[in-house]
Amino acid sequence: MAGAARQPLLWLVIALSLAVVGASVWTIRTARGPLATTPDDVKRIAQIQTSDETRDRRALELRVHGELELGDFGLRLHGDAEAMAADEPLRLSAIHATDAARDRHIDLSPCGQHQWCATTVLPDARFRLELAPTDGTWRIVGARELGQQHVTLTPAWSDP
Q: What is the three-state SS of the chain?
């Protein structure tokens, strides 16, 4: 065994194997980072890709925000902006962090004073949430992490 410990080729093979395992672990941990997907429509001009931010700016102007409760009862949204008409349904898009097949589009119906509800139960997974009226004039967004039961939805833009 003492002779094997002195062989540089043996150490090279062991070191390369450990480096591959370490790099694999690092890659998996890095992939679990923040959400980086968006279903926004984009325009491509040459090599520049831009998205339409009109809905986000409009939500900031109207000061739209909301609190979304998630649970076994379904979904309940609390909002108090004047832009959220009390008698009109809203559309919630839940974009899954890694699997587009698990994306959901849910219609929320008015169910009280500045409240909208749905009986749909979202699975306990990471989602990017987007709320907009059916006409799509504004949009507020938020992110749901694992185990989270309350999500704050705010405009994607902020005041300078």
A: CHHHHCCHHHHHHHHHHHHHHHHHHHHHHHHCCCCCCCCCCEEEECCEEEECCHHHHHHHHHCCCEEEEEECCEEEEEECCCCCCCCCCEEEEEEECCCHHHCEEEEEEEEECCEEEECCCCCCCCEEEEEEECCCCCCEEEEECCCCCEEEEECCCCCC
Q: What is the pLDDT of residue 105?
A: 93
> Quick one: how far is CA 54 from the chain centroid?
20
pTM value is 0.69
Hey, what are 47's tokens? 């090599």
* Token pair in block for residue 72: 């076994």
d(CA 70, CA 53): 27
Residues 118-153 have pLDDT tens digits of 998 888 889 999 999 988 889 999 999 988 899 999
Please compute, for residue 55, the number of CA atoms within 13 A of its CA located in the half-sphere on the CB side: 17
